[in-house]
Design brief:
Blueprint lengths: L13 H7 L2 H4 L3 H17 L5 H20 L11 H13 L1 H4 L7 H37 L4 E6 L2 E7 H26 L1 E2 L15 H7 L4 E2 L3 H6 L2 H28 L6 E2 L18 H24 L14 H23 L2 E2 L1 H8 L6 H10 L4 H18 L8 H7 L13 H6 L9 H15 L3
Parallel strand pairs: 3-4
Antiparallel strand pairs: 1-2, 5-6
Helix pairs in contact: 3-4, 3-7, 3-9, 4-5, 7-8, 7-13, 7-19, 8-11, 11-12, 11-13, 12-13, 15-16
């Protein structure tokens, strides 16, 4: 009979046990469940709710169970449903009635709320550290190639010359915002729910503050109903992970395009690519493609979590058992991406000549020409129109913009001068953009210096 089975006259059918079990996925919470149970037992003993001797015995036995699980000397079965029941059953086997005291003033409802919060704050710390490694890899590549110029794109069309380092630092900034979102989510995760019971708290004189300090929470929940029903923190974390995955997908798309023969801007090391089962010449950026594809999976986990929580009346409902699989899947997926991405970035080899050649297309400097007219007092909208007319003239004549003579230029706009013929240089275009946040050499060098100092890159 299950530990909760006193009310029932017959055991659940095997199919029901299989359908309702969660041990197949929530067993990963064993450390956090044991940690929470030890803090709870210590509190019960300190508050005089159970004998101190019992509390001490429970904590010692929980340590033994932890070692058994980590050694693989522990059997998980669907009959015992979840990680809580497994650990409590082993306690009772070892300690008899003394072990049965551990669940005093506690419900599985507040117990799982605690376990998930303990687990998630640990995983956020792991993910944040891995994102820092990815940032460092991006900064390392940017720093190594700080003078490399390539075309920037809008609408996937050549737009203006930019520094490769500027492009990569854009992703470093995105990842920094991801870290901020994770840190912010961690604040709301880091609230202690234990002591809320099933819904209404308990009549026993528990000391929630004792447990809060023991488990290193800065705060505890203020409403027992909200504490057991709340999964906002899980939705928030999945949202932050989804935005991170979106950033990875965008970076992957850039890199996949750059590696194509049409671009030929870069390639990854062989260890980070795969071949074709049919075409011997192929070198495919599969890790970047898979990372792009896994973004959809993380999005699905967020939608699943939001849908699970939608329409649930207060307080706990068994639907919430379904919260763990999307949470675990998103975390595993993100950590999987981060396990390969930094080294993949470091393996990149750039085709700098090809990048510069693509960025040197004269049309990319059309805006520079318009701004030169602005410096002569021409309103920008008029300057834009005049340069557009020059572009059309060059196209009609079948010549690149930089091959239009000064005399031809003056026919389109009389303000033209010889200095404007010098603008058709990617290096000149980059060097002229020394505004805060711009792609100028000095401005990007300043940004690189900030990040290389942070990561200790020489």
């Amino acid at each position: 009979m299950a530990l909760w089975g006193g009310r029932f006259s017959e055991n659940a059918l095997n199919a029901v046990q299989v359908f309702t079990e969660s041990i197949s996925f929530d067993k990963r919470l064993y450390k956090h469940d044991i940690c929470g149970s030890k803090a709870h037992a210590a509190m019960l003993g300190a508050a005089g709710i159970i004998p101190k001797k019992s509390a001490s015995a429970i904590c010692k036995e929980l340590d033994k169970i932890l070692k058994r699980i980590e050694k693989g000397d522990f059997t998980f079965t669907a009959e015992l449903e979840d990680i809580h029941m497994h650990i409590e059953t082993e306690l009772i086997k070892a300690l008899g009635d003394e072990g049965a005291r551990v669940h005093t003033a506690r419900s599985r409802n507040d117990q799982i709320a605690l376990d998930i919060r303990l687990y998630l704050r640990d995983e956020i710390d792991i993910i944040a550290a891995k994102i820092r490694e990815l940032q460092k890899a991006l900064v390392t590549q940017a720093n190594k190639n700080d003078k490399v110029i390539l075309p920037g794109f809008t609408h996937l069309q050549h737009a203006q010359p930019v520094l490769f380092a500027h492009h990569f630092l854009a992703y470093v900034e995105m990842l920094e915002r991801d870290l901020g979102r994770l840190a912010d989510a961690r604040k709301r995760i880091n609230v202690m729910p234990l002591g809320s019971g099933a819904i209404a708290g308990t009549t026993l004189p528990i000391d929630r503050e004792f447990v809060r300090k023991k488990l290193d929470f800065p705060a505890m929940t203020q409403n027992s109903m909200d504490a057991v029903a709340d999964r906002d923190f899980a939705c928030e974390l999945l949202s932050a992970l989804s935005i991170f995955a979106m950033h990875i997908s965008r970076l992957s798309e850039d890199l996949i395009l750059w590696m194509s023969q049409e671009f030929s801007f870069m390639t990854f090391g062989d260890a980070f690519c795969t071949g074709s089962s049919l075409m011997p010449q192929k070198k495919n950026p599969d890790l970047a493609e898979l990372s792009r594809g896994k973004t959809g999976r993380v999005y699905g986990d967020l939608v699943a979590m939001l849908t699970i929580c939608k329409g649930l009346p207060l307080t706990y409902n068994r639907d919430l058992q379904e919260d763990k699989e999307p949470l675990f899947d998103a975390i595993d997926t993100v950590e999987g991406i981060l396990s390969v991405y930094p080294d993949m970035i470091l393996s990149m080899k750039l085709n700098t000549e090809r990048m510069l050649a693509a960025a040197s297309e004269p049309g990319l400097m059309a805006t520079d020409l318009a701004e030169a007219l602005v410096r002569k007092g021409v309103p920008f909208r008029h300057a834009h129109h005049k340069v557009g007319a020059l572009v059309r003239y060059a196209q009609d004549k079948g010549k690149p913009l930089d091959k239009v003579t000064l005399a031809e230029m003056k026919k389109v706009f009389p303000e033209a001068d010889a200095d404007m013929k010098k603008l058709f240089s990617a290096v000149h275009a980059v060097a002229g953009r020394e505004v805060p946040g711009g792609t100028g050499f000095n401005e990007v060098r300043g940004q690189l210096d900030k990040w290389t100092d942070i990561f200790g890159i020489k």
